[in-house]
Amino acid sequence: xxxAPGFIARMWHxxxxxxxxxxxxxxxxxxxxxxxxxxxxxxxxxxxxxxxPPGAAHWLGTDSLGRDIVSLLLVGARAAIAxxxxxxxxxxxxxxxLGLLAAARRGWVEEAVMRLAxxxxxxxxLLTAIMLTAIYGPGLLTSIVAIGIFNIPVFARITRGAxxxxxxREFVLAARACGKGAARITFEHVLPxxxxxxxxxxxxxxxxxxxxxxxxxxxxxxxxPPTPSWGRMLNEAQTxxxxxxxxxxxxxxxIALSVLGxxxxxxxxxxLLDPRLARQR
Length: 281
Description:
Layout: H1 4-13, H2 15-36, H3 69-105, H4 107-121, H5 125-136, H6 140-167, H7 170-177, H8 182-218, H9 230-237, H10 246-273, H11 275-280
Helix pairs in contact: 2-3, 2-10, 3-4, 3-6, 3-8, 4-6, 5-6, 6-8, 7-8, 8-9, 8-10, 9-10
């Protein structure tokens, strides 16, 4: 097993991971910066200065309501991170628990969990958001719950498949021969050995959550005005694509770079945390 210094040294030499981590750090820094400072209040409407091009006063220009684009992007990063963290957290909490239960108990328990996952897959985040919107109305919470529900079967399937392979290993059979129960083996042997896989999958689902939140906001099912959202910015820019294309370029670029960063970081973590790939480098 690699020591911490060895892992850190390999991490800094892994270009995909470094680039991805830098982009993710930029996303997190933007969200944190918006908590303390933005060039202008993100919700401030200034009609006389609408659709201004980039300049000294407004670095990336203004939108159709005179709002500062930089301020909107910074505050929009908060919504993207909030949805990603909470939705992935929901998926990990319930999905991993169900996957571990299915692998430990097998039989009808495993069959019931997997069929429940199949049933949940029939309701993607968009359809779930539409149903929740009809009941509770659109909003950021609706996006979080819809994407979180979609993540549960993803983590349940991955956890169950990885855990089943660990349950067949010799050291687990030895633990069972020593009298350890299923719960103890799960937390002492199975979960630690699949943790790296779950971490990598979490970064991938985080990227998917950002895309899903932007799509839901674009369709009017997610973050509602006046709260800034990258998807909402794209929605508002679609009627001005020829007059002010930058209104769509900047939020689109923010979404693309965030998703790219998370995917690169996930690929890098997969390489760094997999002992077989680590030995090849």
